[in-house]
């Protein structure tokens, strides 16, 4: 198979945003691909827009990065003019505006999450085309196809922070097990009245699901473990 190394960098991705009783938890895998080639196995798909608002990015890496850069700049100006932090709704609508006005040129689907003193923790989904939807939880990227039924069963109102964190990590690991375009590690960001907390879950700490192989540092480890011992004379 020929690998097209000139293909656009795409984050065939699993991104998740969940509200809980007090804030939001955002999560994402870390695999960025160029065609069939994994360009970056440990990328950070959760990007800061302001101190209290973050965005999970899926689609074209370049497109989502430039949207994040523009929105971060506009929100900085907005904060200076108002003398107070921008709300989550303002940040999400700026993302929506850029996505919608450039929908013919962009391949970007994002989840905006954050906390403000007016409405608490909020999750906004901005899929391809620039629609905006406020939801109690949102999933996106190629891995989300495997998660809709899981969230129908596992989601509940007024979760604690620990329950929301565990839900996000479990969902990301399930999607990574089934979706070839998702993988690597899981990163989470918790945003609430006390600030922002980032967490990192290495691939060797995630649960294994049906017929999944144990993570190894090298294929040589697998080969060496199956080589028979030499015969003694």
Automatic annotation (TrEMBL):
Its main location: cytoplasm. It is found in: Cytoplasm; Nucleus. It catalyses: Cleavage of peptide bonds with very broad specificity. GO terms for molecular function: threonine-type endopeptidase activity. One of its GO terms (cellular component) is nucleus. One of its GO terms (biological process) is proteolysis involved in protein catabolic process. Pfam families: Proteasome. Keywords: Cytoplasm, Hydrolase, Nucleus, Protease, Proteasome, Threonine protease, Zymogen. The active site is at residue 13. Component of the proteasome, a multicatalytic proteinase complex which is characterized by its ability to cleave peptides with Arg, Phe, Tyr, Leu, and Glu adjacent to the leaving group at neutral or slightly basic pH. The proteasome has an ATP-dependent proteolytic activity. Component of the proteasome complex. The 26S proteasome consists of a 20S proteasome core and two 19S regulatory subunits. The 20S proteasome core is composed of 28 subunits that are arranged in four stacked rings, resulting in a barrel-shaped structure. The two end rings are each formed by seven alpha subunits, and the two central rings are each formed by seven beta subunits. The catalytic chamber with the active sites is on the inside of the barrel. Belongs to the peptidase T1B family. This is Proteasome subunit beta. The lineage of its organism: Eukaryota, Viridiplantae, Streptophyta, Embryophyta, Tracheophyta.
């Amino acid at each position: 198979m020929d690998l097209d190394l000139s293909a656009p960098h795409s984050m065939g991705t699993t991104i998740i945003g969940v509200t809980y009783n007090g804030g939001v938890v955002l999560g994402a895998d870390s695999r960025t691909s160029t065609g069939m080639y994994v360009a970056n196995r440990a990328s950070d798909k959760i990007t800061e827009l302001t101190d209290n608002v973050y965005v999970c990015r899926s689609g074209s890496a370049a497109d989502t990065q430039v949207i994040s850069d523009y929105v971060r700049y506009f929100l900085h100006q907005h904060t200076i003019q108002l003398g107070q932090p921008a709300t989550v709704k303002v940040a999400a609508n700026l993302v929506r505006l850029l996505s919608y006005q450039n929908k013919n040129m962009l391949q970007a689907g994002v989840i905006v999450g954050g906390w403000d003193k007016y409405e608490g923790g909020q999750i906004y989904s901005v899929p391809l085309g620039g629609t905006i939807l406020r939801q109690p939880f949102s999933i996106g990227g190629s891995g989300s196809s495997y998660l809709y039924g899981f969230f129908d069963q596992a989601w509940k109102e007024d979760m604690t922070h620990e329950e929301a964190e565990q839900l996000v990590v479990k969902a990301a690991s399930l999607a990574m097990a089934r979706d070839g375009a998702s993988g690597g590690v899981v990163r989470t960001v918790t945003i609430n009245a006390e600030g922002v907390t980032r967490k990192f879950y290495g691939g060797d700490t995630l649960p294994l699901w049906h017929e999944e192989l144990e993570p190894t540092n090298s294929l040589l480890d697998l080969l060496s473990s199956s080589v028979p011992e030499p015969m003694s004379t």
